Amino acid sequence: MDNTTTTNLKGLQKDELIERAQKPLKTKYPDFVYDVKDYDITAWANTEKVVIQFRRIIRFTPLDKKDENLDYDFEVDLTHQGISPFDTWGMKRLYIPTKDEQKKIDFVVNSFGMPRLGFNNSIVEDSTMYKIHIDNEAAFGHYFIDKITGEECLGSIEGSYAPMPDDIPELIDPDPLVEIKE
User: Fold this and answer.
1) pTM exceeds 0.90
2) Residue 105: other Cβ atoms inside 10 A
3) Is the peptide bond before 115 cis (omega within 30 degrees of 0)?
């Protein structure tokens, strides 16, 4: 699509853009069903494209899938009508919890008080515990809770990262995606 279409899309409100993302999803992947409450949905734009990002709020890795390279997030490019990573890799790597796995996620959420807003929230199932990883650009935490009691075990590890310098020329994107908040 041309830049005029990108400009027209950028003139829409965030909610309208998110609604427009449903059409290519339903057209290309009619069997794909997701629950919006499981995702942090944001709209982004630069001079070339407008994208809607669906980032899973809690990423759960079941014990039997620890060695798999699971996808949790997807993105709809409204300008080019592409859906990443589905258009490239298909949907078989997208993690969608089974009912049993959702019960495990709910157990951790209730026992540990998740999600932690402003952080990436991950749960990795182990044979006797759940490993919880929480991080963002500034801080991280690693916690371990017992699979039966929900009580913290093995202690926890928390810390913060040194801030990344803003002035590294090779890392400056000349046309960065900017979030559309309204």
Assistant:
1) no
2) 19
3) yes
Give the model's pLDDT for residue 120: 94
Region 53-66 average pLDDT: 95
d(Cα 111, Cα 35) in Å, to the nearest integer?
A: 22
| 140 band by pLDDT with thresholds 50, 70 and 90 | very high
pLDDT over threshold 90, residue 155: no
Cβ(72)–Cβ(95) below 8 Å: yes
Cβ atoms 15, 182 nearer than 8 A? no
Neighbours of 66 (CB within 10 A): 11
Task: Let me know how long the chain is.
Answer: 182
Q: How far apart, in Å, do the first and last CA atoms of the chain sit?
A: 24
* Consecutive H or E run containing 21: helix 14-28
In whole angstroms, what is the distance from residue 31 CA to residue 26 CA? Answer: 8
Whether residue 170 has pLDDT greater than 90: no
Smallest Cα–Cα separation from 74: which of 14, 115, 11, 24?
Answer: 24
Rounded distance, CA 144 to CA 124, Å? Answer: 10
Structure token pair of residue 97:
């919890």
User: Residue 63: its pLDDT value, please?
Assistant: 95
For residue 27 the two structure tokens come to 């057209």
